[in-house]
Write a sequence for this structure.
């Protein structure tokens, strides 16, 4: 039987916070070059989950957390997207054990479906470094210093 991948909105529950902390810690172990500057502490995760301008998503392989994404309205945006309805893909990560599975696809489809009312989704290439080629294959294009997906 094949593994079923589902992507869910993360809420500030003890279970989902623990899953995000586990995945961010595992991601840093899998990719030692990643610097997070303390952005994945329990307090920061809870604060961002309770912030109306941010949305965390978690993809599951069966019942196991396999990856996450963070979408936000905040932050600096590319000049070419000023005065447009856009959202930033601030993080997009899938654990190595699930890189060759449908986890990436499930997570990206949910990101895109949630924000279809926007003109674009953009990302800083460094924030999505491990998944950049997957995102480009999924429709993101290089636009200056950014990756942009236009609807």
């Amino acid at each position: 039987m094949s593994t079923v991948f589902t992507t869910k909105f993360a809420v500030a529950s003890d279970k989902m916070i623990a899953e995000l902390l586990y995945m961010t810690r595992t991601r840093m172990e899998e990719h030692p070059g990643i610097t997070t500057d303390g952005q994945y502490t329990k307090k920061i995760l809870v604060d961002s989950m309770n912030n109306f301008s941010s949305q965390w998503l978690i993809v599951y392989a069966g019942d196991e957390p396999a990856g996450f994404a963070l979408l936000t309205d905040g932050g600096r945006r590319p000049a070419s997207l000023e005065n447009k309805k856009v959202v930033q893909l601030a993080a997009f990560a899938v654990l190595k054990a699930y890189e060759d599975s449908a986890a990436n696809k499930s997570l990206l489809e949910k990101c895109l479906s949630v924000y279809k009312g926007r003109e674009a989704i953009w990302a800083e290439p460094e924030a999505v470094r491990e998944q950049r080629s997957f995102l480009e294959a999924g429709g993101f294009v290089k636009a200056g210093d950014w990756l942009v997906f236009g609807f």
